[in-house]
Structure formats: C-alpha cells, structure tokens
Amino acid sequence: MTSIASVTLDVADPTAARRFYTAAFGLDTQVRFRASEAPSTGFRGFTLSLTVSQPGTVDSLIGTALDAGATVLKPAVKSLWGYGGVVQAPDGAIWKVATSAKKDTGPVTRQIDTVVLLLGVADIVASKQFYVGRGLAVGKSFARMYVEFDTGSSPVRLGLYRRRALAKDAGVPPEGTGSHRLLIGGDAGPFTDPDGFAWESAAALASTS
Description:
Blueprint: E1 4-11, H1 14-25, E2 31-35, E3 40-42, E4 46-51, H2 55-68, E5 71-78, E6 83-88, E7 94-99, E8 114-121, H3 124-133, E9 137-142, E10 146-150, E11 157-162, H4 163-170, E12 176-178, E13 182-186, E14 191-192, E15 198-201, H5 202-208
Parallel strand pairs: 1-2, 4-7, 8-11, 13-15
Antiparallel strand pairs: 1-13, 3-12, 4-8, 5-6, 6-7, 9-10, 10-11, 14-15
Helix pairs in contact: 1-2
C-alpha cells in the first residue's frame, strides 16, 4: 500500500519554520523544510489539515499557531459537519484544524489524530486515474468533487479536491501562479502529477534531511 511519510515545504528560513511548527502544532517528522526562494503568488493549490477529536483541541492548536505568528483566514466556528477554522503559517502554507464533534466530551488535549494533505486539481477524474496508475488505492470518491486515497497508517493522508472548491474552503481566492512550494515524500515517487505537484522517494528525502 502506498504511503506518504512526510511533506516538505519550501521556506525562506527552515530554522524559523521548524520553530513555528513545533510551537504551533507540535509537528515533527510529518513536516520537513527546504530552503527556497522559488517564486509563488496567491493560492499555492494545496492545504494541510489537522483532524482532532473535539472543539477544545481545535481552539488550543489554533491559539498556539496564532501565538507563534500565524494569521486567521477563517475563525473557528460550528458548522453542519462539526467545528473548525483555518490559519496561514508565516511561510504561506494554509492549515485547517477541524473536528467532526460539536462539543467537548473530555479534557482538552493537543492530540492530532490525522494530518491530511489536500491537493487542489483541475480535473478530479484525470488526477484520480493518474494516482491510481501510480499505485494509490481509492478509499472514498464523490463523483467529480473529492477523492480520498487509502494510505493505511501513513503519517500523512492524501485527498484531491477541485481547486476552486479547496480555495473557497480555505477562505482565499483560487488564483495563484508559480511554485507550489511543496514536495511530497512517499513510496510512489519520484514523479510530477498533472497539476505540477512533485513527489520524491521518502528514502531519498530522508538521506538529504
């Protein structure tokens, strides 16, 4: 089964980025950093999500992210599906913190259940077929709207969303140009997908980190 070991974010200052993500979310091996000044404007075409167990955990993680220097794109609110909000890290990456629960049922923790990478794509069907051809198994699929791949116990899960819908969910305009400033490390790479998202072998990334 194909898995994703980590995502690498292109940042101006890897040390500062590492400091932010440790303070904001307590993330360690799931997110790596690479020094880069690759030009990028507007929406980079992806978001990262942290799925947690209850609203208090959402508030805790968003609170420490803001304290560490993040900015709010969407404040945490209740909705039909649960509770969540969206912030943007100092390096420009967009993070959603959410839960399907609408009220706390126990002590607030900072436990992250899953890290999900959502790629905004131009053609869901074409991108789905491309990834299936690369060995990824489809876990859930909702017509031409959304695809979630079965990556087992992978540290990072993967989904495809229409680019405009993903930007709307993140609270930003869909337009963007230049680099995605993202490298996906898994056992399906190396390759570049139809929307320009680059993959590298997890082993190769580990040897250079």
